[in-house]
Amino acid sequence: MEPNDKIVIIGVTGYIGAWIAKQLTDMGYNHIVGTYRNEAKAQQLQTLLPNVNFYKANIGETENWHEVLREAKWIFNQGSGFSPNDKTFKDRGRTKQKGIRLLLQLAVDSGSVKKFVHTTAESTIAYGNEDPSKTTFTEDDWTNEDRGGLFDHNMVSKTMEERAAWSFIQSHENISNIIMTTIHPTHVMGPSFVPWHNDMIYAMLRGDRAMADSQLYGVDVRDAAAMNITLMKSTAANGKRHFASAFKSTYSTLLNLIKEQFTDEQIKTVLGDAARIIPGNDAADLLGHCHSTSYYQDMVPRMLNRVVYKTNHPEAYAYEYTEPNTTVIQAMEKMLKDKNNYTKFQT
User: Whole-angstrom Cα distance, residue 258 to residue 267?
Assistant: First the structure.
């Protein structure tokens, strides 16, 4: 990428997207375009990054995309197609498939786009596993979106979306030979660049509920953004899938760290009544009667700390990751700071 190249960040107001825009700006790139859905978020981010150009554009629709993609060379995709009418996991997947195919066709039609870095998730790799003995996963693995009983719609819809993207890229429809690389973040944590948050700490630990302790792989949001940029610049990454994962921890470890560093009042401000965590061994024993289900076969090995994520492409990790305690503490501090502003940015 050259400093004057047109770079498009789809979903620029998102958790990772905003940090990509910030880091590219700091690196001297001066022709950045970001797409958004939420007007209030875009206006706020514009005050923080005044040199970024903003366009309202929805994946799955055609409005504004020709202008967004005109003369664009590099696309960072943080978005997905969405429809409020979707009823099932498969419905959501079909909406995402339609959206990504239309987006890639528009990129081809532009005649200028060279490379497309698509952020998906670990959920397209390591779930729906029907082999209880399999506990190590690499980028060669795929989630089985047809496995009955999958409990998270992202495991289905994001997998369907990614398969559709690769199918397009590798087909005769890709007449301009756009290159694609995918990045698969694990649990994304760390301080949001903008005054709204999507932090996995909040998603995992908030609320007065019981939950099974489990291992988790995590990555700082700033590192996930940096890896997007690294993959865009790397010809070695072309046509490959990449885990984005920095550390391995557990829910209880994260919650204990938070309790050591923050007061009860601060924790309640961010998380409400924090979740009550059941030891993984105890939870696994309680689930013994449903050992043939996809939930058991996906989650119990994680409760017992047996799952390993191993990247095929260690050369893509071209920088040092943020240390996990720093990630967690800075995430909590930022959520405390932004708590009073968060609700006004909700759609």
Answer: 8
